[in-house]
Amino acid sequence: MAKTLFEKIWDQHEVTRSDDGQSLLYIDLHLVHEVTSPQAFEGLRLAGRSVRRPDQTFATMDHNIPTDNPFVVSDSIAKRQIDALAENCRDFGVPLADRSSAQQGIVHVIGPELGLTLPGKTIVCGDSHTATHGAVGALAFGIGTSEVEHVLATQCLWQSKPRTMQVELNGRLAPGVAAKDVILALIAEYGIRFGTGYAIEYTGSLLPNLSMAERMTICNMSIEAGARAGLMAPDEVTIGYLKGRPYAPKGEDWEQCVASWRELTTDVDAVYDETVVLNVSSLSPQVTWGTNPGMGGGVDGVVPHPEDFADEMQRRAVEQALQYMGLTPGTRLTDIPVQHVFIGSCTNARIEDLRLAAAVVKNRKVASGVRAMVVPGSKGVKRQAELEGLDEVFREAGFEWREPGCSMCLGMNPDLVPAGERCASTSNRNFEGRQGRGARTHLLSPAMAAAAAVAGHFVDVRQWDLEQTGGVADGTVGSA
Amino acid sequence: MEPLVRHKGKVACLNRVNVDTDQVIPKQFLKRIERSGYGPFLFYDWRYLENGEVNSEFELNQPEVQGASILLAGDNFGCGSSREHAVWALRDYGFRVIIAPSFADIFYNNCFKNGVLPVTLKGDSWSRLEPYFKGNERWMTVDLERQEVEICDGMVLSFEIDPHRKQMLIEGLDDIGLTLRYQRFIEEYEQEQRAPYQKVYG
């Protein structure tokens, strides 16, 4: 029978099925971080259970690590949580990339970077952005802490099979338009819950032209459309990316794996339960104006009027959002000033993202009154950026150059935006209070964030670069 | 886990769509390593003013809904972050049942692990709840066994629920203990079924 990519991976991992239709799914890789795991380890301890497969479990510290000096945690509750993870990993034999490890970083950055994330695997983590790993053709999804405990104890999860949705992305990106703009535009178009209950497979003519980092940005935000998983079939780009990574298979094993990965595509006759299509060729760079990732649009547009929305609940939600964001309908997005710029997060803190941002700020200065920071996604990303001299480019422009972590994406560490101030952020959520109580978050791409830092307000990076340097606009940046 | 079979309770309404888990429990409370004690932080930024005083305008702060154990919420309740702390906070505050036209997936799953029943009611059934939103009615009974919500005037609204999850909740079962009965299957799987890329390298 013809199968989709998702169905192939699902079927391969079904240990058994219960009478009432739930599948016991085998989990190949379990990623763990400090925030959603302490209660799970405690549960194991109380029940006298062990971790079934420590060799298929990998932990890191990312959410509440300070990014100025990771070793000085002044928040005693955060410190307790960091210490708890170290102790739990020691007690249960789980490998841990802690603060002093060269492999430490945001869990969704280091998985692929270390070659732990591989096509065909089932991957879970107590974190909703686990869909990121789907970019290599893995079935990866976020789980709650009870499920973390369940996977630790059994290496399996009971799941009901989600429906399948194809998201077909067609066309080519115009210069200055990024993968981030694709996913933001998709969610703006179809809403923040069109993916609820589905596993998304991204397809279409755009994909072969995307780097792995760009693919990860898109899969990462699948959850912002409601989908727990977002996958892309592995291709030569995927295989080239994974080859030689520390935990990737080697030698004959590698050849065997590559051969099986080439089978990991949706069969021609396979049927998805649902299909949505987006043509990306005419997209503008996106900026959100509201308090969920679907409340956004092209930077060349304006803040909408609540009356533009047909549904009454929607109108109310938009009214509330504009009130929280301190925005007036009709305001041009490029007229909105920013006080903070955050380049980082599991969505956009890979080396390719930093290259794009650096190209924009090179030989320029951060506008006065703007606090801008770059938080690399991992130690690996940081090392590579420093080798390329990107840290100098950012520092010279007036950016802070930080240590890896989740940082201002959710402000669990000291990196917060004060109430009433605006942040241009390359992260994934603009919910009320996400970056600090009363903080106003605008989501955008790394190049757009960098340009906003220099201009002090949102700018259309396409025009800006054409007029001033041609850097991003001629398409030569970021392909290195 | 405390079983849930039939629950009569006072109803509180939160008439907003897309309530995300960052609102249910803001991030500063995720640093704790305990599973309990999150109730005081539920809806923190809405419930309290910036100076720490109780926000008298917030729905759950109204005197008539104190002691509520059933929450009526809007579409796509619990979207965003996977934090189970959101359910822990709702449960610790006193909610056993949450009723909404739709839920986000991860949140929905997390409810069942903590003895909280999420009930999906749409369309006609949902509109029958209007007296509660208007504040004219305050009590209802949720019968999980029969998959029914008994509202005012003896009206009964039925709901769908996955049989496996229903049973777990009714019996208050520990998921892990149940799965360990399948240990033999898991061992067999590990020995026989694995594709080359499922091996562990490093």
Task: Summarize, please.
The complex is a heterodimer of chains A (480) and B (202). By secondary structure, chain A is an alpha/beta fold. Chain A contains 15 helices and 19 strands.
How would you describe what is shown here?
The complex is a heterodimer of chains A (480) and B (202). Chain A is α/β, with parallel strands linked by helices. Chain A has two domains: 5-275, Aconitase, domain 3 (2-Layer Sandwich); 287-468, Aconitase, domain 3 (2-Layer Sandwich), CATH 3.30.499.10. Chain A is 31% helix and 16% strand. Chain A has helices at 5-12, 38-47, 76-92, 107-113, 145-154, 179-190, 212-220, 236-242, 251-261, 312-325, 351-361, 379-387, 390-397, 446-455, 461-468; strands at 14-17, 23-26, 29-32, 57-60, 96-97, 122-125, 139-142, 156-159, 163-170, 198-203, 229-231, 274-279, 286-288, 296-298, 340-343, 371-374, 400-401, 422-425, 440-443. In chain A, helix 2 crosses helix 5, helix 6 packs parallel to helix 7 and helix 11 (351-361) crosses helix 13 (390-397). The radius of gyration of chain B is 19 Å and the shape is globular. Chain B is of the alpha/beta class and 202 residues long. Chain B contains nine helices and seven strands. A seven-stranded mixed sheet of chain B has the order 4-3-2-1-5-6-7. In chain B, a hairpin with a 5-residue loop joins strand 6 (148-150) and strand 7 (156-158). The mean pLDDT of chain B is 95. Chain B has a single domain, classed as Alpha-Beta Barrel (Aconitase, domain 4), CATH 3.20.19.10. Chains A and B meet through helix 2, helix 3, helix 5, helix 9 and helix 10 of A and helix 4, helix 7, helix 8 and helix 9 of B.
